[in-house]
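At this stage, I put together a protein sequence along with its fold in token form, as given directly below:
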Amino acid sequence: MIEQVATAFERKDYSTAAKLLQQLLKESPENPWVQFYLGRLHEVSKKYENAEKIYRQLLRSTTNSKILMQARQGLQRIQEIEQEARQRAIIQATTERSETELGVLVLEPLSNELKAEAAPKFAQILQIDTYTARLTLPSRGWKLYRTGQIGELKFYGTQLQNAGIPCFWVTIAEIKQIQVFQVNYFSESATNATVVCRNQTSQLGSLTFNWSEVKARVSGMLPIFEQVVDVNAQRQLERKTQTQDYAEFCDLHLPSRRCILRLSDQSYQFQQGLEIAAHPSQNTIKINWNLLQEWLGQQIPQVKVWSDFTHFAETILDQTEMLSNIQSYVLLFRRDKTNWDSAFHLYSGLVFSHFREF
């Protein structure tokens, strides 16, 4: 009867082949030829996932060289079909002008247990091997996985989300639309707070807001680099750039106003406005900054603090081309430009854009 099945497939008489296979599956379901033609039936019926499972199972379980060859050919056909479908979908996803904007695709963390389950799905969607997929999926914080046209990122991101792999995508243009105000100091605080601040063109003014408008708080440390003279292995003097200190930053997100209030221990005027600073005898920047952060926590205790910036930044510092598209709005004296500043604004902007609907 197997010969009859083969003949039916040659004639493309799939209804006859299906009827014959139905009988054979009752009589000898473990027969590798029966399984192979069942896979072929799934393939011609465009049930590619079912066909792939059968072909892969045959590659593991049979030694028949003809079946092995045809199973491999079947897998190759399916991969080519999926690749063509993927390319068509990507082209369609990037036809509109708005879908060609530069964007980023960010992976969210998974537990090790969930990573093991998600890795094969991630590998299949992104066309990589499972081992690489498991190493790629983050278990701690966010990981910027890919940059490119937002339509393509959305295409992959939607598939990942449907497979239970948490991720999101944001355009760089969306991050650029966020206004940043550099806070000099708080002048008032009750139900409404007022800050004296500078806008993106350095104009001095004030902004009054209700504490309930603050929906996120982002903290991070940015390295301060200095040129130092050191002695190398040959006992020669050489100049090196080393991290000498860190600047503390804190962003308060006001999504209803599409703006961020940015505070820094390097620029906050602790002796102005509200009395938040320590007694003059204990007046150090570190103490004052910690008091300011403690005070902010008392005003907005329900607001989540996003503090995993350093881990995120270390994964993207080498992406100079992408980061060069992001103006940092970080006010620090720098002899040389560093990607750390743009990385902080990107991190804060991702929090703002991803969680603007609270």
